[in-house]
Design brief:
This is Adenine deaminase. Helices cover about 50% and strands about 15% of the residues. It is α/β, with parallel strands linked by helices and about 325 residues long. An 8-stranded parallel β-sheet has the order 1-2-3-4-5-6-7-8. Helix 4 packs parallel to helix 6 and helix 8 runs parallel beside helix 9. The chain binds adenine (ADE) and zinc ion.
Length: about 325
C-alpha cells in the first residue's frame, strides 16, 4: 500500500495521456499533427515552461464534450488512487476551453460527473480550483469569474497559471479581490520561472494561502523566513521542475534544503502525463534520488493534508492524518 497523500498541484488538462488524446481525437473528429502516440511522446522534450505550454494547449483541442472531461478526470483519479492519493485539489483552465468554444458548463459539469462519484469509485475526495491564465488579460479573468458564478458550489478556490515571466501577480488584483468576496480560497503559481518578488506579491496583493511551486523563494532569505514563520505551504513538483529545466537534474533539487529550512513543502505532479509521473512517482523519485528517509516522506504526506482546503471537514482531515501517522513503510 502506498503512503497516503493529498495532491494539491495538479492540472487536469496535464493528465491527458497520449492514448486518451488519440481516442478523443478520433471520437471528436479532431486531426492531431502526430502520426501516433509514439510520435507524440517524442514531442515531450521541453526547454522551458513556454515550450511545454505550447503542446499542452495544442493537445487540449481534443477535449470538447462533457463526456471528454469526465473520462479525463476518471482516468486521473484511477491513477492517483493507485499511487496513494486520498484527496486531490484539481486545477482546471476554463479560458483555454472557452477560447475554443467549449463552455464553462461543459467543463465543470463534465469534471463534476467524475469528481462527484470519486469517493465511491476511487476512494479519493476532491475539490476543484479554477485557474486564470496569467498571459491573458485581467478583463478576461474577470469575465471568467463571472462565467463561473453558476458553478461556485463546485469550486473551492482560484489559482493563477500559464506563462509566468512578465505577468506579475498584481495584474490580477481585482479578480482576486472579487473572488475573496465570493468566499473562494486563493492560490497562485509563483517563483517557478518568475522572481521571488512574484511570491511576495502573490501573498501581499492577491492574499494567497498557498504558493504553487515557490522554488525561487530560496533567492530571498527574508522571504524564506516569512514563509516559514507564516507556515505558507509550497506545492512543489520535482519531476516537473526537471522537465521544464527549472532545476538541471533531480539530484540537485532543493527540496531537502527547503525542508531543512523549515518550509512547509508538499510534493505534487503538476502535469503528470507530460512530466513522467503521478504523485506517487514524484514521491518515489525524491526518495531514491534525494535520499529522503521515512521521517521526511511522512512529513511531506502530513504536510499535504495540513495544507489542503479541508476546513469544511476537519474530521476527514484528522482521519487522513491518522492514516499517515499509522503508515508502515515496510
Ligand atoms: N507548471 C505549470 N506552470 C504554469 N502553468 C501551468 N499550466 C500547466 N502546468 C503549468
Ligand atoms: Zn502547475
Amino acid at each position: 500500500m502506498p503512503l497516503p497523500k493529498a495532491e494539491l498541484h495538479l492540472h487536469i488538462e496535464g493528465t491527458l495521456e497520449p492514448e486518451l488524446a488519440f481516442e478523443l481525437a478520433t471520437r471528436n473528429g479532431v486531426e492531431l499533427p502526430y502520426a501516433d502516440t509514439d510520435e507524440l511522446r517524442k514531442a515531450y522534450q521541453f526547454e522551458d515552461l513556454q515550450s511545454f505550454l505550447n503542446l499542452y494547449y495544442e493537445l487540449m483541442a481534443v477535449l470538447r464534450t462533457e463526456q471528454d472531461f469526465t473520462d479525463l478526470a476518471n482516468a486521473y483519479l484511477a491513477r492517483a488512487a493507485a499511487q496513494g492519493v486520498r484527496h486531490a485539489e484539481i486545477f482546471f483552465d476554463p479560458q483555454a476551453h472557452m477560447a475554443r468554444g467549449v463552455g464553462m458548463g461543459t467543463v465543470v459539469e463534465g469534471l463534476w460527473r467524475a469528481l462527484g462519484d470519486s469517493e465511491a469509485a476511487h476512494g479519493v475526495s476532491t475539490q476543484l480550483i479554477m485557474c486564470f491564465l496569467r498571459d491573458e488579460s485581467a478583463e478576461s479573468a474577470l469575465e471568467t469569474l463571472e462565467a463561473a458564478k453558476p458553478y461556485l458550489d463546485r469550486i473551492v478556490g482560484i489559482g493563477l497559471d500559464s506563462a509566468e515571466v512578465g505577468h506579475p501577480p498584481v495584474k490580477f488584483r481585482e479578480v482576486y479581490d472579487a473572488a475573496a468576496a465570493l468566499g473562494l480560497r486563493r492560490v497562485a503559481h509563483a517563483g517557478e520561472e518568475g522572481p521571488p518578488e512574484y511570491i511576495t506579491e502573490a501573498l501581499d496583493v492577491l492574499g494567497v494561502e498557498r504558493i504553487d511551486h515557490g522554488l525561487r523563494c530560496l533567492e530571498d532569505e527574508a522571504l524564506v523566513a516569512r514563509l516559514v514563520r507564516d507556515r505558507i505551504p509550497l506545492t512543489l513538483c520535482p519531476l516537473s521542475n526537471v522537465r521544464l529545466r527549472a532545476v538541471d537534474v533531480l539530484s540537485e533539487h532543493p527540496l531537502p534544503v527547503m525542508m531543512d529550512a523549515g518550509l512547509l513543502c508538499t510534493v505534487n505532479s503538476d502535469d503528470p502525463a507530460y512530466f513522467g509521473g503521478y504523485a506517487g512517482d514524484n514521491f518515489d523519485a525524491v526518495r531514491k534520488t534525494l535520499g529522503l528517509g521515512e521521517d521526511r516522506l511522512r512529513e511531506l504526506a502530513r504536510n499535504s493534508f495540513v495544507a489542503s482546503f479541508l476546513e469544511h471537514d476537519e474530521e476527514r482531515r484528522a482521519r487522513y492524518l491518522a492514516e499517515v501517522e499509522a503508515y508502515d513503510f515496510r
